[in-house]
Amino acid sequence: MSDGARRSDELVRRRSVRFRLLAIALLPMLVILPLLLGVAIFRWNAKFDAALISKVNGDLTIAHQYLARILEKTGVQVRALGLSARFHEVLAPDARGSLRDLLDETRKEIGLDFLYLTNDRGDVLASSPPLQRRPRHDWPIVMAALSGKVAATGVDIFGNDELAAISPALAERARLDLVPTPNAVPTDRSTETRGMVVHAASRAMLPDGGAAALVGGTLLNQNLEFIDTINDLVYRAASLPEGSQGTATLFLDDVRISTNVRLFEGRRALGTRVSAAVRSAVLGEGRTWLDSAFVVNDWYISAYEPLVDSFGKRVGMLYVGFLEKPFSEAKYQTLAIIIAAFIAITAATVPIFLRWATSIFMPLERVTATIGEVERGNLSARTKMPVLGDEIGRVAVHLDSLLDQIQERDRQLREWNEELNVRVLERTRDLEHANLKLEATTKQLIMSEKLAAIGEITAGVAHEINNPIAVMQGNLDVVRSVFGADADKAKVEFRLLDEQIHRISQIVTKLLQFARPEEYAGYVERHAPASVISDCLPLVQHLLNKTEIAVVRDDRASRLVLMNRNELQQVLVNLIVNAIHAMPDGGTLTLRSFDAERDGHQGVAIEVTDTGIGMSNEVIEKIFDPFYTTKRRQGTGLGLSISQTLIKRQGGQITAESHLGSGSTFTMWLPEAT
User: CA distances (Å), 524 to each of 506, 646, 649, in order?
Assistant: First the structure.
């Protein structure tokens, strides 16, 4: 069937009532509804993810408020000590109690790691625990308290030496071995020795009227009570679905110094580091991170916010998050249920729609089929539909009545036509006989004139070609005699020249055979395919030398073929040259010969296979057409057409198989010589 006929049938099907009814019935269910469902699922998925981000943002707000509350509480407690009557009593000259004892008692009571009183010169008047050496005096919080601010609090980073000056135990508690963490920023450090401290200072007046400051702090490194309290506040029991887990972490720079994230069972992930992406966003850019993140060994819905010290620098992060996997599983399970429900509903309702549509388009198709039968000449075709009360039934009955009338009119017309044909035949019989004689005579005259003209042209061409061939053959003999014994060094080349000159002579002979078939008689010989292939390869060796093509031989044919040797060489050389042209960048040329049977006849198959660019199906359908070529200006388009003609003349056949990008195979089959 032609492309035009297929397009016409497709157009008819699209315009049919069946097609339109099925489209009306199934389009909403199978197209519109899935699109709407897809859009709804997409928006729901986005809202679901947004809800998770919103929740973790709220969790971060709670953790932030708790930390702010700790800072505020520490400042209030230090300030309360500075304003207390007992504090002023122990500062009096006739004090009965010890200031150091008061500081030690108060520090333990409010849960501080250190508490000391310093004057505006940086001298420590009393401390708990006893300081090892004079502490750093230029903290902004301390300076603010000395300058008149009632109380100042913040988060500060103490170096290990500064912690050791307060207490060797604090310096040891701050030390953490860094754990190699994937995706973290590369570092040469192996330990973290700095400490993150909740730092508070409150103004105090000395008995001599001098300014002083009460300074206290709590080390947050490995402060598990602090981080567990945040986790308990944020993620109460039943606040997350079963299987999920809430976590909280305090970072010094990008190192976890206090966390309830587990590195493995029984060990917290202290000393592990945050990923480079989170570090860049939070510490580098000062943004709050609200997104999914890989935390130690699993994915968490995470929230990170930067922590700023009293100098205004970003020195750490506060993190809260919960395990993402249970939410993802719940989301995918919900999606699976929705899709399964849609498929089940569709599977249940589509057959009902099809049954309703069938009750409408089946009668219409019956009417259409009847009209088609009538158009093809079957005037006895009828719908034979029962009388129904609807419009389609009335149309069918009316159609059958019209067809009865048409059949009767057609019968009458046929009778009149037969009578007229008899009369016309009697009048035209003699004229047809005369026309046949005239046509035969005309054809004979035209053929005689064509053959005469071709004979004259061919004889002239043959004469003009034979003269230079004779000169070439004579000169070749002279060259051979001049070289004498040295001519054996080019024995193969001389033989090839002789063969090709002989081949030209044979072509001239065939032209003369075409012009004067009665004067020439061609001859065929029995040949082994392997020997013919071997003779062809030197003829194309100059083309093979120009590219990196490997030649593979597989000669398994045991039978002989009956064909003119030059014609067989002509076909093989044409196929090999085409294969070489298909592999401009090199490849493998495979030449196979083997016994093969075709249509019950014994024969020999010769295959020429390349690993070149290949051909499309459209090209394969046309390659044997005369004048069709894919080589543009380099070819005439006659090679394969002539080869097919030569092979068919011997009762054989050439076929081709090819795929774009994977090469081509041409198979030549010839019957066995008997």
Answer: 13, 12, 12
Length of the chain, in residues: 674
- What digits encode the pLDDT tens for the residues 344-402? 887 887 777 767 666 666 667 777 777 777 777 777 777 766 666 566 667 777 777 77
Residue 298: in which H helix or E strand, if any? strand 298-308
Residue 80: other Cβ atoms inside 10 A: 15
Instruction: Give the CA-trace dihedral at 553, 558, 564, 565, to 10 degrees.
Output: 40
E strand segments, 5-55: none
What's the CATH fold of domain 521-671? Heat Shock Protein 90 (3.30.565)
Q: Do 201 and 213 meet the contact criterion of CB atoms below 8 Å apart?
A: yes
The distance of Cα 484 from the centroid of its chain, to the nearest Å, equals 70
Interatomic CA distance for residues 104 and 417, integer angstroms: 134
Tell me which residue has tokens 């009665």.
518
CA dihedral 354, 358, 360, 365 (to 10 degrees): 140
- Helix (H/G/I), strand (E/B), else coil: 659: strand
8 Å CB contact between 72 and 369: no
Q: For residue 602, give the 3-state DSSP assignment.
A: strand
What is the Cα–Cα distance from 162 to 140, expressed in whole angstroms? 15
The three-state secondary structure class of 373 is helix
Contact 662, 611 (CB under 8 A): yes
CA-CA distance, 431 to 433, in Å (whole number)? Answer: 5
Instruction: Considering the chain, tell me which residue range(s) the CATH 3.30.565.10 domain(s) occupy.
Output: 521-671
Distances (CA, A) of 605 to 1, 550, 559, 590: 32, 21, 10, 13
**pLDDT tens per residue across span 100-154:** 888 999 999 999 999 999 988 888 888 989 888 888 888 999 998 888 777 789 9
Beta bridge partners of 309: 155
Whether the CA torsion 260, 265, 266, 268 is positive or negative: it is negative
- In the chain, where does the domain assigned CATH 3.30.450.20 lie? 48-328
SS3 185: coil
Q: Can you give the pLDDT at residue 309?
A: 93
pTM for this entry: 0.52
Cα–Cα separations (whole angstroms), residue 599 to 250, 321, 393, 556: 85, 77, 55, 21
- Which CATH code fits 48-328? 3.30.450.20
User: Which residues, 6 or more positions from 162, have their beta carbon under 8 angstroms from its beta carbon?
Assistant: 135, 136
Please give the Cα distance from 537 to 551 (Å, whole number): 9
For residue 480, what is the enclosing H or E element? helix 391-483
